[in-house]
């Protein structure tokens, strides 16, 4: 199923569940540097779009586009693999937790580099990272899917070529993360039992989660979850494998 089709089905409540977390937003906006123009690829309802730059959004799902606020940046219905823009027309291209939905990730990354003048900024997940408790103990099939879909960290240097300088940094997930992606509720385990929360997480579009959720429900009720993982609740943030990838592109104007 294409990204557009997935989000036409599951994305109807994304504007409520997937909002910018200010701590993650600060990291992303710092990575944009002095960019005046930004293309947001796989933009969804508009999370993390900087209000102080000229932003254009690309999103394949009509349902997601319909949820964009009237004040949001102008948006184009298109796919990462075929961006409808000339070469080097934006200072920076950003893509936030979307690469795993692209049908051809190498082509999508090449397109991002083609239309960017300065850099490409990606928030993604490292498939070599250890899975956190939800995936290890309750939903192991999810992490296997993610490890097939998310590119390994070495793939970015290959995608952008030897002339690009690629930086990778850890993005810890706050214990009270506002943005409701899969790892956001690591310190609020009961949230995963809420259908409204799950509706904002694309992994739950795939069948087979109910047995694991039933085990989680039972472990929360009998205290087993807290016995194994209660120590995590003292942490302000955890490294769950989310990474900020910044590809500084060569000066092609020379």
Task: Explain how this protein is built.
There is one protein chain. With 254 residues, the chain is α/β, with parallel strands linked by helices. The chain has one domain (3-248): Rossmann fold (3-Layer(aba) Sandwich). It has eleven helices and nine strands. The chain has helices spanning 3-10, 14-17, 22-31, 62-66, 105-115, 133-138, 140-149, 154-160, 195-198, 210-222, 224-229, and strands spanning 37-41, 54-58, 74-76, 90-96, 116-125, 165-170, 173-174, 237-238, 242-248. The chain has a seven-stranded mixed sheet, with helices on both faces. A two-stranded antiparallel sheet has the order 7-8. Strand 4 (90-96), helix 5 and strand 5 (116-125) form a beta-alpha-beta unit. It is globular and about 60 Å long. The mean pLDDT is 92.
Helix coverage percent of residues?
25-40%
Biggest sheet: strand arrangement: 3-2-1-4-5-9-6
Q: How does the major sheet shape up?
A: 7 strands, mixed
Count of distinct strands: 9
Structural class: alpha/beta
Cα end-to-end separation: 42 Å
Shape annotation: globular
Q: Please give the CATH architecture.
A: 3-Layer(aba) Sandwich
At the first level of CATH, the class is: Alpha Beta
User: Oligomerization state of this entry?
Assistant: single chain
CATH superfamily: Vaccinia Virus protein VP39
* CATH topology title: Rossmann fold
Report the sheet-strand fraction. Answer: 15-25%
Uncertain runs:
none
Pattern of helices and strands: HHHEEHEEHEHHHEEHHHEE
What is the number of domains? 1
| Number of helical elements | 11
Calculate the mean pLDDT score and round it.
92
Radius of gyration: 18 Å
